[in-house]
Design brief:
- By secondary structure, this protein is mainly α.
- It has 4 helices and no strands.
- It has helices spanning about 1-25, 35-55, 70-85, 95-114.
- Helix 3 (about 70-85) runs antiparallel to helix 4.
- The radius of gyration is 15 Å and the shape is globular.
- The model has no long low-confidence stretch (mean pLDDT about 80).
């Protein structure tokens, strides 16, 4: 039952990102080079490093957590893109990816505790 609500939240995030993209052209990386580099680092982490980490840990390739299919790498890449390109002034775009990472961390901490 939770997947239905999660799908709605993800659709809301997509709508917010499309709205933000239509409001103003991308900005930020030129004005804040350190934040732009950190954002690109998070983007690379979510798209490339996160899926490879599972393979390094010995998980089968079919269990790799990939961007666009699993919440944590997608949230990391989204936050990286926001940090690198959309400027921190658009704080209304941050709550959904942050909440997704918090839920993932809580889930993993329960798995690690058992």
């Amino acid at each position: 039952w939770a997947a239905d609500y999660l799908a709605l939240v993800c659709a809301a995030q997509v709508a917010l990102l499309l709205l933000a993209g239509g409001l103003r052209p991308l900005e930020g990386a030129r004005d804040r080079p350190a934040a732009g580099r950190a954002g690109l680092g998070l983007l690379v982490l979510g798209v490339l490093v996160y899926p490879l980490a599972g393979l390094v840990l010995g998980w089968p390739g079919l269990q790799a957590e990939t961007f666009g299919l699993m919440p944590e790498p997608t949230a990391l890449a989204t936050m990286g893109g926001l940090l690198a390109f959309a400027a921190l002034r658009r704080a209304w775009l941050w709550p959904i990816p942050l909440a997704s990472l918090c839920v993932g961390l809580a889930t993993r901490s329960l798995l690690w505790a058992s």
